[in-house]
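Training component of the fellowship. As part of building independent skills, the fellow (R.M.) carried out the full modelling exercise for a liganded target. The chosen ligand was zinc ion. The inputs are recorded below so that the supervisory panel can assess the work.
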Amino acid sequence: MVVSDITKVQAIEGFMRLCADGWEQGWHERNGGNLTYRMTKDDVEACRPFFYNPRPWVKMEVKAENLAGEYFITTGSGKYFRNVALHPHHNIGIVEINEEGDSWRIVWGLINGAQPTSEFPTHFMNHSVRKAATDGANRVIYHCHATNIIAMTYVVPLTNKAFTKALWQSATECPVVFPEGVGVVPWMVPGGHDIALATSELMKTFQAAVWAQHGLFVSGPDYDTAFGLAHTIEKSADVYCKVMATGHPVLQTITDDNLKAIAKEFGVTLNQDMFD
Ligand code: 2HA
Ligand code: ZN
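Fellow's submitted model of the complex:
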């Protein structure tokens, strides 16, 4: 479809809508959070009429051969989700990856010297892992500062099992939405190589990782699924925190047998590592 405005291209429109939705949830104070989307060939062709003369290549510390030649829509470093809808050209952009899979260059947006998100290397490595793990289906990586999941990282042991169990037991839909559970990354410096590597190790198994005292990192095949996953996890974390805040002892919860009954009914396989 030919459009007169790049923000009417479905991939860009959906990207901007996710940014607005995340902002409305209260997960993106100041420049918090970041979003990337690996474009389809059709997305690229729909956006190509709006491309500039490409900017110079910028080499990354990370490399992924399975992302060579791909195009990504990305939020900008230091940019605010709150401003994306108002000034998309300033706050988001499209980058092309080179044939070696180790450099990017801006082909649209991010005007006035803006750069892709500071977490781009982390997103990039995780796109590589999720693309491989899902046979190419995964396209979205989304990081947000979801309040209740951050709060949980102060009181729940920082293990995949403890977090998964706490979340599965705090909302009945959870085991259906993320039957493999969630991974947990201990506190780490954001934006660097170490957090990129630690997260991408977990994302071989999980669609979502919790970053201790920082936020949530999720993946998905499309915007709805990725945002829906973050929303489901954060909703469950909200319930968990509210239950804890009552100060009352927990009288009943979703038992292991209940979880297994859900899995059977919905035809999902729960990650057995999460059971004793
Ligand atoms: O983009 O959220 O983790 C700012 C951040 C870094
Ligand atoms: Zn962050």
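The panel noted the following from the submitted structure. The chain has a mean pLDDT of 97. The first strand starts at residue 34 and ends at 38.
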